[in-house]
Amino acid sequence: MKFDPIKDAILHAGETVRKAKPEEGLVVKEGRLNFVTAADFESERILKKAIKKNFPTHLILSEETDSDIKNILAAEHLWAIDPIDGTSNFRFSRGYVGISVGYVEKGIPIAGFIYNPFTNELFHAQKGEGAFVNDNPIHVGKVADLAKATVLTDNSYDQEGIRQNLTMLVKLNPTPWVLIRGSAVLAFCDISAGRADLYFHCRLKAWENPTGFIIAKEAGAVIKGWQGEAINFLSPKAVVGNEVLVDQFIEAINK
Length: 255
Hints:
The protein is an alpha+beta fold. 31% of the residues lie in helices and 25% in strands. The protein has seven helices and 14 strands. A hairpin with a 2-residue loop joins β8 (131-133) and β9. The longest helix is centred in the first third of the chain and has 17 residues, at 38-54. The chain starts with a helix and ends with a helix. 44% of the residues are buried. The model has no long low-confidence stretch (mean pLDDT 93).
């Protein structure tokens, strides 16, 4: 399957987001600091148009559009879109924003693109072919001691999600270096590129996971549930990093 049209579309969407005014069309959604803007909808429009033109029979799952897909994991051809992951960052001009498009076949992520238009970095991967940023190969880091690792997590739009993530951090002793930056898809990219060592979250979404999963796995990362179990992209709880750190994290939070 040729993914060039989707690559072109995500770059186009990114240019639109980069030039957009964050306050335009601003709507506050349910939950704290949860926004949608005109740029979210325009990015989504561009991406969906490209998918429908090039893959007219494929299904689309997107954050900003209600879906009536009955069995997501059974879909033969599914595209998962997050038009702007990190809308709060976009709203306040923090520049840590990812546009995400992932392709899935029967529950298995096959390919994905994540683009930060403010750094002009395009992360991409295809099953069995490795992971890249701007066509340069990337690999998960080799840190083997969780106490010396850089660990990423994120806030959640609901208070319980925030408390749960922070509770997990408290269980790590000694405490590693921790970053909370506000975009799950870019966190997956940071792990994949060795810029940070481990990422975990308890409120991940089905439209952001497929792309993050395929890029991380192709970069050599493992992805497990908080009990060490195998998970699919519908799981809200995941930990990602090299296998040594992931296993250390799982052991620490389950003591």
